[in-house]
């Protein structure tokens, strides 16, 4: 069993390295997010090699001591977090935090450079100069700090992704921007890694010595993570999709949020609904609450509140219900039976076939084809 797990881990190491290179150097899917993801995978691969190499020395240089090989562990949580923040367009809000930890991560790698320099110039290492006790304190302090940074990165990634989902529901009418389940899976796959890593650190803090089987379990989940990323990368276009970028531009529109009145005016909501029907704003595939606010000269916050409280839907659901009704009218019109489902979806304001099917399933429980006369 142990041999099988080891083979899976090493297969994932090779795959993760190749996949990381693809993400970093792909011209077709070039983006900062993909370069971060590729760097994250390669850092994982390198850390696996450092922890699992069956050798104790390279020539006369020992690689079994503290910081004798580059310590990249600190890069893992910061690259993970930076990737998620880049996908939800929130990296700029955490740039100082990211910058500080990137500096610390490169500082950890520099310690290995000092070790190598000492070895070739003094025939010694930092352990020889500082002693095992101090090097053990420095190394374990780094491990605990990195663990709590990983925990913090998970919490921040969870919060910002949830914030993004809520923002899309209340500001955008593009259903494809809500199809971020792969990102949630990416985030929650870190949970078992955090759990087993935390258990291993607790074991050491209580006096445990050597490396336990928990480390093997951690790397097994790393292997599964690599397979997960590769699968999603080739089957889910939103991993390379730029649709999330559109949210960043919404805040620059002329629709300014203004204070709400103490009581809702029922006539105002009727005005909003009437305009949506008469002007058919929902046919705009890129309609956002800010664009609607600009067109109607009503603050976006007011529209959001009225839609939520009077219709019982968020903005995304509210707009797509109009699109479904429009598409249903076309589907039931015998003079329009030459239109394809995709054509009807486009005519109704849906940006893609998948967005149309998602909206139909949610509102009617059936696919669009169910309503087409035989």
Features:
374 residues; Rhopdopsin 7-helix transmembrane proteins; Arc Repressor Mutant, subunit A; 3 domains; two-stranded antiparallel sheet
Structural description of this entry:
The chain has three domains: 2-248, Rhopdopsin 7-helix transmembrane proteins; 255-312; 318-374, Arc Repressor Mutant, subunit A (Orthogonal Bundle). The protein is elongated, with a radius of gyration of 27 Å. It is 68% helix and 1% strand. Helix 14 packs across helix 15. A hairpin with a 2-residue loop joins strand 1 (57-58) and strand 2 (61-62). The chain has 16 helices and two strands. By secondary structure, it is an all-alpha fold. A two-stranded antiparallel ribbon has the order 1-2. It has helices spanning 2-25, 32-52, 75-87, 95-122, 126-130, 132-171, 181-188, 190-205, 213-235, 245-250, 266-279, 289-296, 300-311, 315-331, 341-347, 353-364; strands at 57-58, 61-62.
Strand content: under 5%
The level of helicity is: 55-70%
CA-based shape: elongated
Structural class: mainly alpha
Give the CATH topology of the largest domain.
Answer: Rhopdopsin 7-helix transmembrane proteins
Task: Return the CATH architecture of the largest domain.
Answer: Up-down Bundle
For the biggest β-sheet, the strand order reads: 1-2
- What is the name of the CATH class of the largest domain? Mainly Alpha
Biggest beta-sheet profile: 2 strands, antiparallel
Number of helices: 16
Layout: helices, strands, pairs:
Layout: H1 2-25, H2 32-52, E1 57-58, E2 61-62, H3 75-87, H4 95-122, H5 126-130, H6 132-171, H7 181-188, H8 190-205, H9 213-235, H10 245-250, H11 266-279, H12 289-296, H13 300-311, H14 315-331, H15 341-347, H16 353-364
Antiparallel strand pairs: 1-2
